[in-house]
Amino acid sequence: MAVAQMKKLSVVALEKDTQRLITELQKLRCVEVSKSDFGDVQMISAADVSQEMGELMSRIALTRRAIAFLAAYETGKHTIFDPPMEASIDDFDSGLDTIAMDEVRAANTLAEKIAYTEGELLRLEGEHGAYQPWIGEDVVLPGDRTVYTRYLCGTLPLNADMAAINERLADLAHEIIEIYTDKTVRALLLVAHKDDFDEARKVLASGGFAVCPVKASAEEGYAAGAAASCMRQIEALRQELERLKKAAKKMADTRLADIKALHDIFLTRQDRLGARGRTVETEKTVLLSGWVPVRAQDKTKRLLEKYDAAYSFEDPESNEDVPVLLSNRPAARNFESVLSMYALPRYGRFDPTAIMSVFYTIIFGLMFADVGYGAIMVIGCIAALKLLHPSEGMRQFLRMFAICGASCIIGGILFGGYFGDLPAAVMEGFGGRENTPTLAVWFDMVEEPIMMLVLSLGVGAVHMVTAFVIKFIILVRDGYIFDAIADVGSWLILFAGAGVYFMEPMAGAILAGLGGLMLICTQGRHEKNGFMRLLKGVMSLYDIVGYLSDLLSYSRILALSLASAVIASVMNLLSTMGGFTVGGIILFVVVFLLGHVINFLVNILGTYVHTSRLQYIEFFGKFYESGGRAFAPLEPKSKYVNFK
To answer: pTM here?
Structure first.
């Protein structure tokens, strides 16, 4: 229940050992390398890694291109149940990267060949199609000439105004022969006297005439011969394309895993180079600085001593930007994602994850109090943990929901939620029973919503008071004892009086009055003017309205719990309307599954959001000091593989 203590690390190592040292630090996964600042020291300059970074970025781009290409040809069956691939950084650093890079180049070369072949195939298929209207015609394509005439083959849009075109051609020595017509164009042969040919061509062009795009000579056998030659080329290219695609499938099935590992190795090396770029150097040495958790200090020392590096571990100064690493016990650690989505605490300040996790679990269980839904959460999360091989972050998320699912089961037992009122609905709809007793161990929240509202507000009151107590402890720890008593203790006494009033009115009124008097006397203490001091103290009592508003926010516990319970009850009623018949059972299965799946998905999302909201606004707002920056250690990057 704390922010891990950090040490500032300063290292001076030999320049020749730098790459190996940074690699080993990356494997430790516990050192954040920050920008080195050793002051105004002569002979020191920032490390320049721009050239190496440029080359590495180029290799990453080539690798990504190869992965995208081969992924389309992979034939192996992969499922979400497959364990992640594993690889060794040492293997790649020892030469496997060279072999894998050759595979990347081969894959990209193969991709280029396939792209070129497909382009040529597409071009030839278009050419073959262009020959089709002219097959059977002994004409040279696209045109030819005699001593006195010229002719030209082409196409004209079917909607061209032939009457207007013929009218303009009437005074020219010409003939238009229609060879072929389809739904969009007509193939025409224009024959004209050599003196009128250019003018006739212009007239046709004005109507959209397009010259035949292919060539065919008498020696080739005109269009039929050229088309046959074109088809032979097409068949050869199709066979070549098939061969290339088979090679791509084989490479995808045998080499893609290595290339994916190489991609992650390159990302890992990119981080190393980034770390190297944050160091400074002399002719023979490199100066590195960063942050290390105290708990990882010893193993970091052992590594540095292997390289005979000079080092120091120092406590951070108050003005330094110290990264934050949360340190909680295993159960509370699963709720760190809830805190992280809001904001990390500032370094050295209070981490409320452990306390928050208790309230989060309780409130979630109250909002979604149902044995059936809770069991689905628990079973589903445990199955996902066992079968899906999730990342550590996702594992924490799944474990958190499993814990919340157990809380939902307890809530369902207390308030009688078993997929809503399913047992009662089945007995009444199928068995004909009436006035089925509730299964609630404590009370049925649907039948007694006021009791549920009181419970919701009671939990909210405890939640808010806990926040005030935390604020009180923080102020005392920081040495602000009077501020703790005046600004927090006064409200705690007033709240205590309000609670006691319902049991002992006189004692409650005295306590509340004492708390109010303390607020009036202390909340204007920073004002120099006596009247303003008193006025500000009296005005501070207006904050009661804000705290009452915060308390009423916890009525959303009632709203969410009733929403899921009532919707489930409606679905149960609809599903049992058919009675105990074949049709009724079919109706029951369909409506039950569909209705409860929708209810589960909608309300689990609402419960997650509103439970988080109560932590962020009503709880953290009373004491939380945010502004921390997450600890980002140098570590291997894993998109496709896990590194040993």
So the answer is: 0.84
